Amino acid sequence: MAICLRAFRLLISSSSEVIQDGAVVVGGDVIISAGVWSKIQSTLPQAARIINLGDVTMMPGLFDCHVHLFMEPSSFQTTDVASPLDADLVVRMESNCLRVLDAGVTTVRDLGCIRTLSTELRARVNAGLAQGPRILSANAPITVPGGHASSWGGTASGVDGCRAEAQKRVQEGVDVIKVMTTGGFLTLGSSPAKARYSVEELRVIAEVAHTHGIPVTTHATGVEGIERAIDAGFDCIEHCSWSVEGGTKFNGEIAKKLVAQNVIVCPTMNTACMEKDYYCPWDTRENVLQNLTSLREHGVQIVVGTDNGIVGCPFERYADGLSVLIEAGYTLREVIASATDKASEVCGLSSVTGKLLPGMSADIVAFAGNPLESVESFSKPRFVMARGREHALTPITPVDNAKLAADVARKLRKGAGLSMV
To answer: SUPFAM superfamilies from the xrefs (predicted)?
Structure first.
């Protein structure tokens, strides 16, 4: 039976104008038609079920291009997470999938987990055995022995070793290959400013990925690692924090290389970045905002990703990261594009999702208010449908960021590790 969703406002894509009194007709898991209700009504199948969503803005489902579904944001964790049993992690991951949907996110890139748990979860969601967003899986990130997230099961060194590990990811059926080009402060003794792989090692990983039509992205917080990944032919940079020894320093020449080689940046803004006592040890919140502004001024294309899953960054608080982008100078339309159709292009899904067009996946969300007028709308999801399946929303709970920041600072003083991954 066809379903017709009717709303006060309809945004078909990030570049379109808002349609007043809009409707979207869904058949199975695809969109049949979308537009003004008066026109849709005349062609509506007689048996269609009509759902009046009321005073909301209906728009394409959102992308989160950087999550860690196996992690628990309410507990302090290092990358050494070998103690939980896989069965426990599976339960956690399926629960986190529901929390992702609660935010209006219908597609995620799961950029790092233990072994092959991500592709296994993807298979269960695709088969309808678990409810969740569309999952683009990376499985374990490729990292140097003893390096950032090395306990997750993906270590490699040397050109031959890196080639073999990349080929292993291909065999696992990943959608994207993730590499830890620099260290991170989640792993003790790991420097976020220092590059861990040579250009030659990174290039062979990129070659394997691209030979099989798989994009390759990297955790690169440091300037040295960012430039090496660009030179090696990587498609995307995660975090891109511009870390150097003793702090951060934006590099305009490297930013020009990002633009020239069409390398996308996923800056991973999230709930932690909302707090004035931002708890990243190597940076300040002011620098984070200025670096985002500089990326925009240099014309670097970004996509929305949050790193949600790490401590203090709940999956359902996706909208917090969008607020940070607005604060840094991005327009609401730019943010919507980076969270929908631009993200779908980067993820290789531009013909599948990211717009509400006939034949595309029925990934549909509705927010109170108008997201083109206020970023606050994104924190008020009222309806979520992922691939034609309605999701029963759970109310989003507030987060005490000040308490989290204080707890993180205390843990860091005790020598525990914490990081963006």
So the answer is: Composite domain of metallo-dependent hydrolases, Metallo-dependent hydrolases
Strand-pair partners of 60: 364
Q: How many residues does the chain have?
A: 421
CB 204 within 8 A of CB 170: no
Q: Report the chain's mean pLDDT, rounded to a whole number.
A: 91
Structure token pair of residue 278: 């931002």
Per-residue pLDDT band for 252 (boundaries 50, 70, 90) equals very high
How many CA atoms lie less than 13 Å away from 132 in the CB half-sphere?
27
Residues linked to residue 220 through DSSP beta bridges, in sequence order: 239
So what's the pLDDT on residue 277?
A: 63
According to the 3-state scheme, what is the secondary structure of the chain? CCEEEEEEEECCCCCCCCEEEEEEEEECCEEEEEEEHHHHHHCCCCCCEEEEEEEEEEEECEEEEEECCCCCCCCCCCCCCCCCCHHHHHHHHHHHHHHHHHCCEEEEEECCCCCCHHHHHHHHHHCCCCCCCEEEECCCCEECCCCCCHHHCCECCHHHHHHHHHHHHHHHCCCCEEEECECCCCCCCCCCCCECCCHHHHHHHHHHHHHCCCCEEEEEEEHHHHHHHHHCCCCEEEEEEEEECCEECCCHHHHHHHHHCCCEEECCCCHHHHCCCCCCCCCCHHHHHHHHHHHHHCCCCECCCCCECECCCCHHHHHHHHHHHHHCCCCHHHHHHHHCHHHHHHCCCCCCCCCCCCCCECCEEEEECCCCCCHHHHHCEEEEEECCEEECCCCCCCCCHHHHHHHHHHHHHCCCCCCCC
What's the pLDDT score for residue 180? 96
Give residue-wise pLDDT tens across range 192-248. 788 999 999 999 999 999 999 999 999 999 999 999 999 999 999 999 999 888 888
Torsion of CA 206, 208, 212, 216, to 10 degrees: -30
